[in-house]
Amino acid sequence: MAKIIHENKNGFHFSPNNPPSLVSAILHFFKNRESLWKKDEIRENIIKNFSWKKTPEETLDFLKKVLEIYKFKNEEATTKFRCDESPLLI
After folding, report:
1. CA 77, CA 79: separation in Å to the nearest integer?
2. What is the pLDDT of residue 31?
3. Which of 21, 44, 61, 76 is 20 to 30 Å from 5 at the Cα level?
4. pLDDT tens per residue across span 43-84
5. Distance separating alpha carbons of residues 7 and 15, to the nearest angstrom
6. Helix, strand, or coil here: 57?
7. Are 74 and 90 a contacting pair, CB within 8 Å?
8. Sign, Cα dihedral of 10, 13, 16, 17
9. Alpha-carbon distances of 81 from 35, 71, 73, 74, 75, rounded to whole Å
10. Which of 30, 25, 26 is nearest to 14 (CA)?
């Protein structure tokens, strides 16, 4: 959500399970309504940053990074066991 929400522009962050945090965000909203983005600006921002083309590309890039990390950690674990001359190979 942090990528969608711009603090004090189109939304507010607050801590879950923390009623005072939510109250603070609501009061801040009512005190600062004039400085918030207008509905059209929020819509334009979402259209610009989230599309049917862009979202799958970003998801694929993320999954590739996860796979690289997994491969690295798996190679590291295998190498460690081989160096220890343990009969167990992962």
Report:
1. 5
2. 87
3. 61
4. 888 888 778 888 889 899 999 999 988 887 777 666 565 555
5. 13
6. helix
7. yes
8. negative
9. 59, 16, 12, 11, 10
10. 25
